[in-house]
Amino acid sequence: MASSLTKDSVLPGTPGSEKTFFGHPRGLATLFMTEMWERFSYYGMRALLPLYLVAPGGLHMSAASATAIYSVYLSLVYLLAMPGGWFADRVLGPRKTVAVAGAVIMLGHLTLALPWAGTFFAGLGLVAIGSGLLKANISTMVGHLYKGTDDPRRDGGFTIFYIGINLGAFAAPLIIGTIGENVNWHIGFALAAVGMGVGLTQFLLGSRHLDPRSDVVPTPLSAEEKRATLRKSALWAAVAVVFYAIVGFSGVYTLNWVLVPITIAGLLIPVMVLVRIKRDKELDRTEQSKMTAYIWFFVAAAVFWMIYDQGGSTVSLFAEKSADNSIFGWEFPVSWYQSVNPIMIMALAPVFAWLWVALARRGKEPSTAVKFGMGLVLVGASFFLFLAPLAIADGGHKAAALWLVGIYFVQTVGELTLSPVGLSVTTKMAPAKYASQMMGVWFLAVTAGDATTGLLSTAGVDLNTKGIVALEACLAAVAGLAVWMYRNKVKTLMGDVR
């Protein structure tokens, strides 16, 4: 490939005359940078979150409570991606929705920076709402940049976009994590707001390079639908306010009154959404078949994310308590472990992008189902590896940092076989009626996985025990094997999508 931004010396408007970003549409650079800064803010806050929750200078909670809050928060972020997609499809369109989302996220991080527990949870809620509005729509706009599902650059474009995510995720723990752990927790959260502010500014300046479809509201609400939606929203908000007021004034309120309903919703809503789409009689036979295949990928992804996202909670809290967080005698903040995965992504993602193209040219590229099976087996292997440092800690010793680095490495390889491919296949298999919403459906797989973790934690299950870790590892390996065994059936259901 040529340089990142090139312009051929031919007349404007002729094929090949437009500016490109690593050979891709110029709008990919705008979305790349926006997502990079948004992920900088998000992953910086996320790296601090479980550590702040257990720290004596933070909220000083138990590890189980911290894991539950962390998992429920992640579940909520991805759960809200679905209404975020709906909001773009019916109200503002993807581009304007992302602009609003950036402002809400920035406000949320500023609220987290205030030194009170009440404002802290309000800030988490705002970041979750903003992230939900942004996530599905920015990925949908990446899909808009390519002309049809057969564009050979499509998978590569999503992989480059994925590098932007991980560039922000790599820098965040090193900067925000260090300031938060070593200087002041709330200054760290404020730095996350600065990052989102930079990302929002860049998006507003570069949005002219996006595809015109990003400004379109595909199925706008009628005036009557708007009134009905507002009435229903107000009713449910009033029910929630009255219910929690009664619980609070009765003196029986605990954090589980919030955590348990969200985790249950995180498990039930994905199932309800998939059933609703699958039973939609407006979908033709081909779309129905693709949705049947998609359910396989959805379930596989839910199992994957259930284990993978514990790298920021279960594994991180283990590191804080039971690991020797030093290399050659040099001690580093616990939050820095969260930079291991993104730096490996940046190193390996181009290799995987090249590998898939090279294998495709030879007719040997693994099918989407095979890639998903590989991802599940690898994330299971990462938790089999986790058993070693757990055994060392049980013996009264501190586990070496390289054990944890090894866990993140195996998870990274698994992520690269599943996550970018999942984003791409979602845009390829989405029924036309559910354009932006289907990306929200993809993120519901993360919701289901994290909700499962949250439910286990609120039920008192200690996720840092060898028995539970081994059980989760076996579950992922068995699920990966099942996907591989039924790969041909899934391939047939996918129709013309490869």
From TrEMBL:
Membrane-topology annotation of the record: Multi-pass membrane protein
Keywords: Cell membrane, Membrane, Transmembrane, Transmembrane helix, Transport
Membrane-spanning parts: 43-62, 68-86, 98-118, 124-146, 158-179, 185-205, 234-252, 258-277, 289-308, 340-360, 372-393, 399-418, 439-461, 467-486
InterPro entries tied to this protein: Dipep/tripep_permease, MFS_trans_sf, MFS_Transporters, POT_fam, PTR2_symporter_CS
UniProt xrefs under SUPFAM superfamilies: MFS general substrate transporter
Primary location: membrane
Subcellular location: Cell membrane; Membrane
Signal sequence bounds: none
Protein family per UniProt: Belongs to the major facilitator superfamily. Proton-dependent oligopeptide transporter (POT/PTR) (TC 2.A.17) family.
Entry-linked NCBIfam families: yjdL_sub1_fam
Record-given protein name: MFS transporter
UniProt lineage: Bacteria, Bacillati, Actinomycetota, Actinomycetes, Kitasatosporales
